[in-house]
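Predict the 3D structure for this chain.
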Amino acid sequence: MLKMLYGFIVSLVLIVNTGCSALATLPTSKQTVLHLLDVTPIEQVTNGYMKKMESTRSKYVDLFQAKYPTITLEVELFEGTAQELTERLQSNQSPDVVLFETNQLPVLLSDNLLQPLDPLISKSNFDLQAISPTLVESFKQIGNGTIYSLAPFFSSKVVVYNKAFFNAAGVAFPTNQMTWDQLFELAGKMTSGDGKQHIAGISLSNSDLLDSMSVYTSGLASTMISPTGDQLNVDQPEWEKTWTQFSRLYHQKIIPTSEDFMQYSVAGPFTYDDFLSKRSAMSVVDIEQIQNIMYANQKAAKFENFSPIDFDVVSLPVHRSGSNEGGNATFYGLMGIPVHAANAEDAWTYLQYINSDEFAKIKQNTTPYLSTHESIGSENPHMNFNLKAFYSLIPTFDPQNPYLYFNDDFRYQELMNIGRSALKDVLDGKITAKDGLLMWKQQGEVILKDIQSHPDAKKNPFMSY
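Done. Predicted structure below.
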């Protein structure tokens, strides 16, 4: 529904806001050109290229162009390999701004292709404090202490809970920054019923168990894949503890599984979703799933066998009590300035505007994602839940996370499938968690070595679907 209103809202806001700004004065009348290279994926559908171009311009170009008419912003969509992108950014044909996804950032940083933004931030009047401190810290972590990119929007995970279920059970609601052990204990108290009446304590995702575990394992001290990219670190004690713990949660039916979905699915419009179908007391969700719940509540009378859910959210749990790090974030509109940008001055003017309060206020009702400016989101009357939960933790970033590269190299999917097979054997009682992880490590490292020896063997064009 938001997307349907997009054109009308943006047109209206342009009329009202074009002449107003809290930013620096407009550039001189001298006409300049700013080149933006969009390297985010292009969906392989009919008119995919044209649709992507229209999307990029409507999201990130039109408002800036109206405000800064003396800067002509030219957009180019990139299709090619990571190596071809590197060569482009190192050449005299480098763009002035590059738009990319979070998972593409390691490629850009590994060859020092982006300028650090810290000096520009210090010299300008850009208000970095307007961006949520936890997200600023995440930008720094991604750049090993240096800010190389900024983004106006993001999405992260929180825990949503059904208040009615908790009240009926006489159990206290979850709270921000619980530990995972505390959350699982709480989930055990909220697990009830059998067969079609079964309610799981918590659903970590609407996917298989290994994928569900990723929201937990992303915060472990040892990353799944080594920084060198050739070792699978799952033979560590904390991974054995994780698989043993999740096996217990599985057999006690505290977490739902795909098998539960097939066996216990009840009739209704939201059988694909554990929380909306009321098969779980809590679920790990993102902002789009929260919006789905809000929409379902608003239109409840139109859905058969559905009544509104009284809900609220808390932050993801943490692994260590008192920690403020956990989960991960996906950034949208993530941009940086290449080292060889010819028009770095206008590029910084552009990044300042895209990450300004003014831009955030205009866009807050026309995007499904959250503004990185926490104060802007809190002004939205529709966000009548604990919005701070999305901003309370510093998202972690693992550049070797195999989930980042599924669209780039199918062998990472093969790697995870080996893990799924090993985990199933553990759940079936055929092998121990330790043996299952060792099997995954041994077979998985064969794939990792193949990726390093033949990097382009099974690769798609650079992050293109």
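The longest helix spans residues 433-453.
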